[in-house]
């Protein structure tokens, strides 16, 4: 009797986990609990797919224990095992599009003539929300709005904030967040919040002609920024030809590398400061046997560079250069 009961329970369990049925679920935003429409829902074990409607609901014909794969351009890809219930809820974590940096050095500026290097992600004209006058003007108009705010003069001379925001499916700014290594005051939050909300309207991103919300993060700095790409890059004295002449003259081939017949390139990263001095020098990809240390030494003793400039103001720039080690034949 005991073994018969156990067998019956195992049969019922296997039956309930293997029986196909219609399952209803709702997808919501983890932060705001708002419904997520336009999410693509697929079964890992088949080609079946469904799409969440404007209320976040979808239906799927599946087994308990099957795996759902939920994808959406605005959210992190999520896998979920179907529970043994008729209806359930799925929460998605927002996926933030990185808008890189906005340096407020030299602001306010004339937005009609100022040209900035935009992140590559904004080159996707189909799947990215659109600012009314274009992304170039978004950066300059936001910078001007912040710099012209009466509370701007009360900020520290150096600061570093991450501004997070959502462009809703109605083209509205929502879910504003301001992150800093220090605590954020109400003055700071109100300044950045009112500045971005004062800008022109947005056209939301779309999937299959259906408007969707999209999440962004923008690093806003003053006095702390280190650029990778600038309007006028930093340059060594005598240009790069002069720099590599200095390298060839100064390089001392490490004895260990010579014995082991080591050749190749060591990539050295460093920062050209506002006064042209070279700082934060390190080998980011090396070949060992003393070559990495020699490459760092070469850069440490290099003459000052001409600093980079952004909108006519000197700025810090991070550089990565190869130092080549070739044995005499």
Largest sheet: 5 strands, mixed
> What is the percentage of strand-forming residues?
35-45%
User: Which percent range fits the helix content?
Assistant: 10-25%
Principal-axis shape equals flat
Helical element count? Answer: 6
Helix and strand sequence: HEEEEEEEEEHEEHEEEEEEHHEEHEEE
Q: How many structurally independent domains?
A: 3
Which structural class is indicated by helix and strand composition? alpha+beta
The total strand number stands at 22
Separation of the first and last Cα atoms: 88 Å
Instruction: Summarize model confidence as the mean pLDDT.
Output: 86
Please state the CA-atom Rg, rounded to the nearest Å: 28 Å
Low-pLDDT stretches: 1-17
Q: What can you see in these coordinates?
A:
The chain has 329 residues and is an alpha+beta fold. The protein has three domains: 91 residues, Immunoglobulin-like (Sandwich); 129 residues, no CATH class; 91 residues, 2-Layer Sandwich (Fusion Protein Consisting Of Minor Coat Protein, Glycine Rich Linker, Tola, And A His Tag, Chain: A, Domain 2). It is 21% helix and 38% strand. Strands 16, 18, 19, 21 and 22 form a five-stranded mixed β-sheet that branches. A four-stranded antiparallel β-sheet has the order 3-2-5-6, with no helix packed on it. Strands 8-15-10-11 form a four-stranded mixed β-sheet, with helices on one face. Strand 5 and strand 6 form a beta hairpin. The longest helix has 17 residues. The radius of gyration is 28 Å and the shape is flat. The chain starts with a helix and ends with a strand. The N terminus is likely disordered.
């Amino acid at each position: 009797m005991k073994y018969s009961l156990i067998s019956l329970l195992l049969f019922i369990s296997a039956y309930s986990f293997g029986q196909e049925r219609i399952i209803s679920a709702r997808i919501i935003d983890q932060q705001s609990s708002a419904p997520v429409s336009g999410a693509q829902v697929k079964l890992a074990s088949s080609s079946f797919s469904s799409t969440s409607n404007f209320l976040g609901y979808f239906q799927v014909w599946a087994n308990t224990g099957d795996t759902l794969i939920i994808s959406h351009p605005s959210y992190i890809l999520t896998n979920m095992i179907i529970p043994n219930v008729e209806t359930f809820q799925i929460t998605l974590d927002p996926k933030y599009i990185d808008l890189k940096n906005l340096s407020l050095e030299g602001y306010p500026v004339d937005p009609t003539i100022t040209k900035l290097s935009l992140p590559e992600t904004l080159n996707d004209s189909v799947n990215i929300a659109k600012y009314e006058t274009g992304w170039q003007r978004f950066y300059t108009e936001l910078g001007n709005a912040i710099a012209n705010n009466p509370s701007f003069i009360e900020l520290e001379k150096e600061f570093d904030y991450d501004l997070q925001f959502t462009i809703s499916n109605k083209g509205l700014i929502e879910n504003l967040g301001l992150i800093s290594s220090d605590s954020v005051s109400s003055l700071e939050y109100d300044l950045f919040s009112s500045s971005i909300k004062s800008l022109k309207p947005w056209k939301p991103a779309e999937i299959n002609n259906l408007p969707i919300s999209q999440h962004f993060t923008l690093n806003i700095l003053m006095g702390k920024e280190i650029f990778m790409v600038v309007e006028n890059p930093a340059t060594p004295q005598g240009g790069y030809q002069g720099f590599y002449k200095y390298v060839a003259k100064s390089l001392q081939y490490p004895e260990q590398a010579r014995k082991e017949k080591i050749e190749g390139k060591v990539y050295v990263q460093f920062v050209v400061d506002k006064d042209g001095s070279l700082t934060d020098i390190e080998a980011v990809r090396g070949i060992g046997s003393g070559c990495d240390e020699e490459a760092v030494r070469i850069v440490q003793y290099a003459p000052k560079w001409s600093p980079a400039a952004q909108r006519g103001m000197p700025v810090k720039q991070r550089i990565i250069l190869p130092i080549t080690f070739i044995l005499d034949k």
